[in-house]
UniProtKB/TrEMBL annotation:
Name this polypeptide is given: Glycosyltransferase
Pfam families for the chain: Glycos_transf_1
Matching InterPro entries: Glyco_trans_1
Span of domain Glycosyl transferase family: 189-345
GO biological process: lipopolysaccharide biosynthetic process
GO molecular function, one term: glycosyltransferase activity
Keyword list, A-Z: Transferase
Amino acid sequence: MNNTFSVAISNRNVLGKNGASRILLEQAQNFSSKGARVYLYVSRINKALVSKNITIKRFFSLNPIKKTRREQFAHKFKDFCNRSNIDLSIGNGDTVYQQVLFMHNLIELENKFVPKMQDLSSNYAFLIHDKILKEKNFKLLVCNSLLMKNFIQQKYCVLDEDSIVLYPGYDPKKFNTINKPDAKNVFIKKYNLKKNFIVGFVTSGNLKKRGIDIFFETLTHMQKRLLDDISFIVVGKEKNFKSYFANYPQLYSYINFIEPIDDVENIFKSLDVLIHPALIEEFGMVVLESMACGVPVITSKRVGASEIFENNLSDLIINEPNPLEFSKKLTEIITNTQKRINCSLAASNIATKYTWNSYFAKLFEIYAFKQLIPKSFIQT
C-alpha cells in the first residue's frame, strides 16, 4: 500500500454530536487505518474525538463579518490542498472546491417546511451550498438519501453518474439488542420514570425541524387511558423546553425532558417505540441507530431514513408529518403487542445491512471505480 497517499477532509465545525461530524470522523479513521495521511481542515473541533495519527489543520480569520469568514473558509481549503499536495480532497458543504462532496442537509427544503426559518437571501450556509452546487467543482456527489439526490438533481442538473445515494451507517458494537432489559431498568431508575412503557422523541438538537410541535400535537389525539400508561421522553438540546407546554399544558405531567447524553444507545435500548415526526430530515441517524436496538420507528416519507424500511416496518411510514396520522400509528403499535414484536425484529434485521463497515466498503469501491484512491485501499 502507498502509505504516502494523503486525504484532506473539510468541515467548519466538527463537534461530534450531529450526523455530519460522525460520518466525517468515521471516514477519517477509515483512511488512517489504511495507512493514508489524513488531515481535517476545520474552524472548530472537539480534539477528544480525533485519533492522534490524524492531523488537524485549523482555519482562523480575524474578520468580524460572519459571511466573509464563511467565504474565506470555502475557498482556502483549495489553497491548503494545493500547498500540501493532497491526493484526495473531501468537502462537506462548506468548501467550493473538492473532488468529493458530501451533502448533509437541504436548507432550501428546511426553509420551505420549518416555520420561522432565516430568509434564504441572508442564510450564509444556503448561499455557500447554492454556489457549490451551481459551480459543480467536484467529481462525485454523495447524498444520504434519495430525497436529497432527487432534489439536487432536479434543481442543479447534477448528472446521475456524478452522484450516488449512500445511507449513513452505525456502530453495531454500540447499537444492538444486547442487554436491553437491563439497560431499560437502569434508565427508568436514573430518570425516575413512572411507567415502564417508553415512547421517545430523540434528537441531537433543532427540535423545531425534528417536529417537536407535531409530537406534542400527536399526543393530544391519544386516548387518556393510553397516555396514563406511558412514559414519554424528549431528548434534545433546548434551553427553554418548558415553553413548549404553553399551548399544551395538559401534557406537562406526561413528558420527561432529557439533555443529550454520550451513551445514547442506552436511551434507544430503553424505548418501546420511537416517533420521529421531522418536518424534513435528509436522513436521520437516530432512526437507524434505534432500529439497530430493535425499536419500531414511526416516521414519514419526509425523513430520508424511511427509505431503508422494509416489510413490516414499512407500515409505520406516513406520507407527510400529520399529528392525527401519527397518533393512529402510535396507538396501533402500542396496543398491538404482536405487531410491535414483529416490527422490532424487522427493525434490527434491516439495520444489519447498514453498519459503518458496509458503508465504507461501498464508498471505497466507488472511490476506486472513479480512480480517486488506489485499488489497494479496497483490498485491506
